[in-house]
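Journal club prep — side note

Before the paper discussion, L.F. wants everyone to see what a predicted structure for a comparable chain looks like in token form. Sequence:
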Amino acid sequence: MENFTVIGQMVNASNSTLVVESDGNRFIYKPRSGERPLWDFPDHTLHLRERAAYLVSEMLGWDVVPETTINEGPFGIGSFQKWIDAEPTTVDIFPPNTVPDGWLTIVTGIDEEGHQVTLAHENSERLMQIAVFDALVNNADRKAGHLLTDKTGNTYGIDHGVTFNSEDKLRTVLWGWIGERISSNQLADLEKLKSQMSGSELEELLTASEIDALHERLDFLLTRQTMPSPSPNWPAVPWPVF
């Protein structure tokens, strides 16, 4: 067991989320003991889904999710994700008629103070790649604050505890490409993923029905080759969006 030192806590997180350090390296630690029960996800599985999302990201070669491991920590076993110095810059809320040129509008509504606002995100290949990734892993909570861009301009996705459900639960701020064709490079990576999943660590982290559903979503994306649409049976956008 590594010697982890707790140096902070994410107070706005719905589950216990701690910042820890070990040998000069910093991690986001999500202990299993700090997970709140959810009606639609089996108890004590959220940390396993964090690891599973990282594995899919690595199998694809997309580097969407920072390195994530399962380890023993100060409050028991949990997920440890490598800390990245980054900020949310690719999705934002704007007053009317102030959305930057080239950005894609998702929804317009009224905020808590009664002002009209518009949710929009940038139109980039990297962000679309993350949107494909979210459709594949069935991300039920892709908030704007879960998309972090570092100083080099690379954007990562974090917080994947509510992924891989066997039912359709895609809920995201990245709806700007509905119906658009997935790039040939991304489709090629998805095709390669099919052979990598069988017998992988994913089968130790997810249930058999969740693995089956993952294969079904992969086949759906490869067959349709277009970005999905929101489900009529599930909220399309998480709230709050950040």
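L.F.'s comment for the group: The longest helix spans residues 208-224. Keep this in mind when we get to the figures.
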